[in-house]
Amino acid sequence: MIKFAFKNLAVKKVQSILIVLSILVSAGVAVLAYNVSTQVEKGITKTAGYYSAIVGPAGSQTQLAMNTMYFTDSPLGTIPYRVVNDLEMDSRVTKAIPFAMADSYNGYSIVGSTSAFLDGKKVAFGKMFDDAGCFEVVVGSRVAEVCDLKVGSEIFTSHSAGEMHKTPFVVVGILDATGTVYDKTVFTQLKSIWEVHEHEEEEHDHEEEEEHDHEEMDGMVCAVLVRTKNPAYAMTLVNDYKNKVVTDEDGDTFSLQAIEPMQTVREVLNDADQTKYIVFVLSGVILAMNFVIIGIITLLNTYHAKKEIALMRLIGVSTAKINLLYLIQNLFIGLIAIGAAFGFSRICLAFMGDFVANMGVVLNAGTIYWPEIIILFGVLAVSVLPTVIWTAIMARRDSAENA
Q: Do the Cβ atoms of 33 and 280 come closer than 8 Å?
C-alpha cells in the first residue's frame, strides 16, 4: 500500500509540489517568527539585566538604552564626569562605569570606558587595556579580521566629520568572538578619547568649529552604567536623577535622566511582540488558504482517480484501504513540507545572525523551542485534515450504498 502511494505521488508531481510550497510558507514563517522573537527577547533582556540603571542626558529613554548597551543610534549628548564621581560615592551604588562613544575606525564605532565595561569578555590575543594607560585599544574579533589587525598594530581614528586624527592607538588585545556587536567595536580608555581630542584641539585652535567639537568631549561622558546593591536602590536612584540638573566647572548646566534598562527594553519588546503577532495572523491566513487549496487538490485527485478507485474496488480492495492510501500520500507530503519548513527557518536564522548581532544578540540556529514543534505538527494536522474529511465522507457513502 505504501509503495503504491509513493508511485501515485510520483505521477502527481505538480499537485504535490504545490501543497509542499503552501505548507512551507505558512509553517516556515511562523516557526521563524517564534524562534527569532524568543531568542532576541532572551538575549536583549539578559544584556539589559546586567545593569541596574543608566544615567545620561535627558532625551529618549530608548535611545539611551540602545546606545549604551548595544552601540546603536547616536549618543544623546554629553554630561560632566562629576556625575560618575557622584555615583561612585553613592552608598546605593556598587559600580559606576563611564561610557563615551566618539570617533570611528574604518566605520567601526569606538567606545571609551574602563576595563570594567568588558567584564566577562575574554581576550583571545594580547591583554586588556590598562585603565591607567592611554592610546591603547582592545578590538573586537570581526574588526581584527576585516582590518587585518594584530597585537601591536597601530590604528588612526576618524572624527565624526570624517577627518583623520594624527594620534595613533596601539592594539593591545583582541577579544574572543562572541557573535555580538562587541565583535564589531573598538574599546579604549575613556582618557584616550579625551586626550586625542585635546591634542587635536591644540593643533586646530585656529579653527573655531573644530575647537568647539573637541572641547565637548574633554572631561565629559555620554552616560554612566550603574550597578546597585539591590533593585529597590535602582528605583530610588532613577527617581533621584529624573530631570536632575548638574553644573560643570564652567558653570554650564546639564539636564539628566536615569532609566532602568530592563524596563525600557521590555517596552521596546512589547512593540516587537505586536509585530510577531501580526506575522502569526498572516501565517494563519496562509494556513487557512492552504486548507482550501489542499481540499480542492484532494477533490480533483479523487475525481481524476475514479477509474483507479473503481478498479481497486473491483479487485477487492476495501474502501478503508483506499482511504488509507490517500491518507498516506497526504501525510507523506505534509511531513516533507514541515521538514522543509524547519530547514527553511534554520537557513534564515543563519543569514539573520549578523543583523541581530547588532542588537547584542547571538542567534543560534541549533536552538529549538517546544512551541516550534507544536506549530509544525499543528500545520501537519491541518494539511491532512481535508483528506481525513473526504475519506470519512467516502466511508459513510460506501456504507449507505451497501445497506
A: yes
> Which residues, in sequence order, are bridge partners of residue 323?
none
Residue whose grid cell is 566647572? 249
Residue 332: band (very low, low, confident or very high) from pLDDT cuts 50, 70, 90: confident
Considering the entire predicted model, what is its pTM?
0.72
CA distances 27 to 114, 118, 192, 198, 380, Å, are 47, 40, 52, 58, 9
If you count them, how many residues does the chain have? 403
**Which position has the grid cell 511531513?**
335
Q: How far apart are CA 224 and CA 244, in angstroms?
A: 14
66: helix, coil or strand? helix
pLDDT in tens, 218-245: 589 999 999 999 989 999 999 999 989 9
Which of residues 31 and 268 earns the better pLDDT score? 31
Burial label, 123 (beta-carbon count in 10 A; 0-12, 13-18, 19+): middle
Please report where in the chains the cell 542588537 appears, as a residue. 359
- For residue 153, give every residue at least 6 positions away whose Cβ sits within 8 Å of its Cβ, in sequence order, or none: 170, 171
DSSP state at residue 121:
-
**Which are the contacts of 262, defined by CB distance < 8 A and separation ≥ 6?**
45, 48, 49
| Residue 202 CB coordination number (10 Å) | 10
Residues 261-272 pLDDT 10s: 888 888 777 766
Whether the predicted pLDDT of 202 surpasses 90: no
